[in-house]
Description:
Elements: E1 2-7, H1 12-20, E2 32-37, H2 56-68, E3 73-78, H3 90-97, H4 99-106, E4 110-112, E5 118-122, E6 128-132, H5 133-136, E7 140-144, E8 146-150, E9 154-156, H6 158-161, H7 168-176, H8 180-187, E10 195-207, E11 217-226, H9 229-239, H10 248-257, E12 267-270, H11 286-293, E13 297-300, H12 310-326, E14 331-339, E15 351-355, H13 357-362, E16 370-372, H14 379-391
Parallel strand pairs: 1-12, 2-3, 2-7, 3-4, 7-10, 8-10, 13-14, 14-15, 15-16
Antiparallel strand pairs: 1-11, 5-6, 8-9, 10-11
Amino acid sequence: xxxxxxxxxGSDTVSKALEAINAWEAFEPGTNVLIKPNLVMGxxxxxxxxxxxxxxxxxxxxxxxxxxxxxxxxxxxxxxxELPTLKLDTAAAFKWSGIQALAEKEDIPLTDLxxxxxxxxxxxDHTEIEIAKAVxxxxxxxxxxxxxxxxQTVTTVCLKNLKGCLSTESKKKCHMETDLNRAIAEYNQxxxxxxxxxxxxxxxxxxxxxxxxxxxxxxMGLILAGKERLECDVVGSFLLGCPAEEVxxxxxxxxxxxxxxxxxxxxxxxEDPRQYSVTLEYLSSWLEDMMEKYAVVGMRMPxxxxxxxxxxxxxxxxxxFAFCRAHQGTDIQGAELCAGLDVTPSNDTxxxxxxxxxxxxxxxxxxxxxxxxxxPPDPAKVTEILTKALIEGEMPQQ
Length: 398
């Protein structure tokens, strides 16, 4: 097998990359196609989605190519983060990313994979997960991830992008009931994927969502395409400065399919990935960055690991952002913020703060803790409770 790595010169770059790997050899007229772009979440029109969601130009070219090949039907499908308190769902992601406008222009139906129906599968540790039937029943699935590093999975390319095919509850299970990286490897055994077109127009540091850092998104100007998701992930992770053997979910998947992690064993058509590899961080410092931006000092947040689900993480980010913005220049000494199932406050912490249901349940014996309930916590409640406890010195009713 081989992958194509092409320098972007316009939308026809996608066609050239797919021709180079003979992408259409198994494609027959009348084939029902499902396109799964990376549309992780919706966002404010004031914030650019570049490097966060798949480019409409790339997705649109794939749509036009499969139609040219005689596809019987084409659908664009995703299951984005659902946060009712922030008015975020798959529809919001379609709109923010520009994919809704593309779909209207090209007359392409959009499918919210979060709505099901689903089929149930069992992971090796007997955790049950649900996968959208729309993906399982498509004749030809095209995966369009975006090149990013990731706080919990080191990188996110093809394998991780297919997490959007799971039900919302199953996405949460991947964090809370099983090992996230092993789950990613195993659900990829159940989800069909016939073609991968990686949007490497950019390389995003510490995704999958905007962090507010000025240089989070770097221009890369590439398209990476391949039939095998493992090969694309090996090359894609290398481009991000992360060798595949250091990315746990890629290692697990390679073991499952007896595949190679050796870049030297992959035939790369077109550009030499060594000429484009960058070095990006993947461990997040979002709270520190936020505090620095608003000159807030004295709080700290231990690394929460993999057992913090995306919904909780997004809501905590929103609530803490509003808190820091509202209390610029404040010195808050001794507050240790704990989130997820794996974090316990230090014994000498003056003010332990337990964010969310999981942190509260796992730290029942911690005395004098500020507790922010919810699964996930409401961002407004995060801001309100922290303001009362850390600014006004009033311990809220627990």
